[in-house]
Design brief:
With about 300 residues, this protein is of the alpha/beta class. It is built from 13 helices and 12 strands. Strands 3, 4, 5, 6, 7, 10, 11 and 12 form an 8-stranded mixed beta sheet that branches.
Length: about 300
C-alpha cells in the first residue's frame, strides 16, 4: 500500500468506525452515545472527522434521526466487515493463548462435506487436538476463488465446475459417481442403468443453479437439444431426497451420498451411463509447500487418506 491509500488507512481509526456503525444501526447519535458510554458531542466530532477523511457526507441528519447516504451505506458495509474480522482475530488469538497450536481455514463443496470430510477431519482432529479447523461449505467455483484470494488455506472442489484457469495447485482427493434417484415405484426404478436422455423425460428436483451437478445437467440437456424440466431447486441433498420421495420429481446425487442417506424415504438409485457422471474432487491450495505448518499437516494427511481409498 503506497501514497494516498496508505495515508487513508492511517487516518481511519477503529473507534470512529465502531461509533459510525452504532449510529447507523440505532438511527441516532444520542442513542449511539448512550450505548457506547460517550458524550454525544464526542460522537458528532468523530463522525465529522470521518467525513473529512473520506471527503464526502456519510449521514443525512433529519428530525427523526440519521440515515446513511449512499457513501455511508458503502462505508457501513466495509466497517462491519473490518470489525467482524477483528472479532475473529481476537477469538483466534485467544485460542492460541488457551493451547491451540494451529488454525486451518478450509472451504469445500457439499459433496465432499457430506461424503468424505467427516471421517477425514475427524481422524485429523483426534491426532492433532491442538489444531483448530474452520470449515465452510461453498459451491466449487467459490471454493477455488476463496483459496486463490487467500480467504482459505485449503479447498476441496470439482475443478471441472470452476471456470477458467484457477492458477491453483491441486492433488487428487476422491472420486464419486452420480446416480439417478427415484421413488421405488417410479418407472425407472427397475432399470439397471439409464442414459441422461431418459432422465429428461421427467420433472427434475435439482440443487442450486451454480452447483456442479446443475451445471453438468444443463450442459448435457443443451447437448441433447432437450429442455431440462427442473421444477424445484433445493440447497441440500437431504431436502432433494424428501422432495423426490414425495413424488415431486427425480434427481441426481453422488452415489455415496445416497448410501449415507438411506432411510430418508422409499427411494432407489439407478446408475447413470454418462462419462460426466464420474466426478473427481481435488484438494487445492495456492502453494502446498508454502502453507502454514498446521495446514500442511492437514493437506498431507488428507492426501494419504485419498491414496488409501
Amino acid at each position: 500500500m503506497e501514497g494516498p491509500e496508505r495515508n487513508f488507512a492511517r487516518r481511519i481509526d477503529l473507534t470512529s468506525l465502531q461509533l459510525f456503525v452504532a449510529v447507523c444501526e440505532l438511527g441516532g447519535i444520542g442513542r449511539a452515545a448512550q450505548q457506547e458510554y460517550i458524550a454525544a458531542s464526542a460522537v458528532s466530532k468523530r463522525l465529522s472527522d470521518l467525513e473529512a477523511v473520506v471527503g464526502t457526507p456519510l449521514l443525512r441528519r433529519g428530525r427523526r434521526g440519521v440515515t446513511p447516504t449512499p457513501a455511508g451505506e458503502s462505508l457501513l458495509h466495509h466497517a462491519r466487515a473490518v470489525l467482524f474480522g477483528l472479532e475473529r482475530m481476537q477469538g483466534e488469538l485467544a485460542e492460541y493463548a488457551e493451547g491451540v497450536r494451529g488454525h486451518v481455514r478450509m472451504h469445500a463443496n457439499l459433496s465432499a462435506i457430506l461424503q468424505f470430510l467427516p471421517e477425514d477431519l475427524g481422524a485429523f482432529a483426534r491426532a492433532h487436538a491442538q489444531i483448530k479447523i474452520d470449515l465452510q461449505e461453498h459451491l466449487s467455483p467459490a471454493v477455488a476463488h476463496a483459496v486463490a484470494e487467500g480467504a482459505a488455506d485449503l479447498g476441496i472442489c470439482s475443478l471441472r465446475a470452476s471456470s477458467g484457469d484457477t492458477g491453483l495447485q491441486s492433488r487428487a482427493y476422491r472420486n464419486d459417481r452420480l446416480v439417478v434417484v427415484v421413488p421405488r415405484s417410479h418407472a425407472l426404478a427397475g432399470r439397471g442403468a439409464v442414459r441422461f436422455e431418459d432422465v429428461l423425460a421427467w420433472d427434475i428436483v435439482g440443487l442450486h443453479a451454480g452447483s456442479s451437478i446443475s451445471l453438468a445437467m444443463r450442459a448435457a440437456a443443451a447437448q441433447a437439444a432437450r429442455p431440462l424440466r427442473q421444477r424445484i431447486q433445493v440447497t441440500s441433498l437431504d431436502a432433494m431426497c424428501r422432495m423426490i420421495d414425495n413424488g415431486l420429481g427425480i434427481g441426481l446425487l453422488p452415489d455415496r451420498a445416497f448410501t449415507l442417506m438411506q432411510g430418508m424415504g422409499q427411494l432407489a438409485a439407478v446408475a447413470l451411463q454418462e462419462p460426466w457422471a464420474e466426478r473427481e474432487l481435488r484438494l487445492v491450495a495456492r502453494d502446498f509447500d508454502a502453507l502454514p505448518a498446521a495446514a500442511r499437516l492437514l493437506a498431507d494427511q488428507i492426501a494419504r487418506e485419498a491414496v488409501d481409498h
